[in-house]
Design goal:
With 186 residues, this protein is of the alpha/beta class. The protein has a single domain, classed as P-loop containing nucleotide triphosphate hydrolases (Rossmann fold, 3-Layer(aba) Sandwich). The chain contains six helices and six strands; from the N terminus they run E-H-E-H-E-H-E-H-H-E-H-E. It has helices at residues 21-34, 51-56, 79-101, 119-124, 130-138, 155-160; strands spanning 11-15, 39-43, 62-64, 113-117, 145-149, 163-166. It has a six-stranded parallel beta sheet with strand order 3-2-4-5-1-6, sandwiched between helices. The N and C termini lie far apart (36 Å).
Length: 186
């Protein structure tokens, strides 16, 4: 069995217009935690009002960074709100990376897997700097696994990834007027 501290960490992208990007990332986080990996979850563009946050907070190997500010949907934001969101989400990303890179006195990494939910959307909206994210991905410790989710990744992000999985929308209940349901979509 491979030692998790000596393994090669890879970069995953879960993207597309279909449902399931966050679900896939959370599934991978739970699988990793089930094998004793320490997982850090950063959620961008979302609030803490989601079922997976409640569940993940009960798994000792998983640390979910709190989302203390909600800015609403980007298409409804004023320029001032967008500016505040960019500052907040950039700080959140930097804090997550700082935490992910910490080690103990023996040099053991604090985390084995970093999930950055909606990082791709945050880049696309200009809330986090894609060049900075790419730099962080290039300079991460060799053993750190990273998962990014969101719609519309750039070619640069796609090229940085080892895994790219696209969720394709074929049908969605929203088309029939059925809105997001607690426990299923959030």
């Amino acid at each position: 069995m491979e030692n998790k501290n000596e393994r090669t960490g890879l970069i995953h992208i879960y993207c597309g217009d279909g449902k399931g990007k966050t679900t896939a990332a959370i599934g991978a986080a739970i699988r990793a935690a089930g094998r004793g990996f320490r997982v850090l979850v950063l959620r961008l563009l979302k609030t803490n009002d989601s079922g997976e946050v409640n569940a993940l907070q009960n798994i000792p190997e998983i640390h979910v960074l709190p989302c203390v500010h909600s800015f609403g949907f980007s298409w409804n934001m004023t320029p001032e709100q967008k500016e505040k969101a960019a500052v907040y989400y950039s700080e959140q990303m930097e804090n997550a990376w700082k935490m992910a890179l910490e080690t103990d006195e023996n040099g053991t990494p604090a985390f084995d897997l970093l999930v950055m939910d909606e990082a791709i959307g945050a880049c696309r909206q200009g809330f986090i700097c894609e060049e900075r994210l790419l730099e962080l991905l290039r300079t991460r410790p060799a053993s750190l696994e990273v998962i990014l989710t969101g719609r519309g990744p750039s070619e640069a992000l796609l090229n940085a990834a080892d895994y790219v999985t696209e969720m394709a929308l074929r049908r969605h209940p929203y088309e029939r007027g059925i809105g997001a349901r607690e426990g299923i979509e959030y």
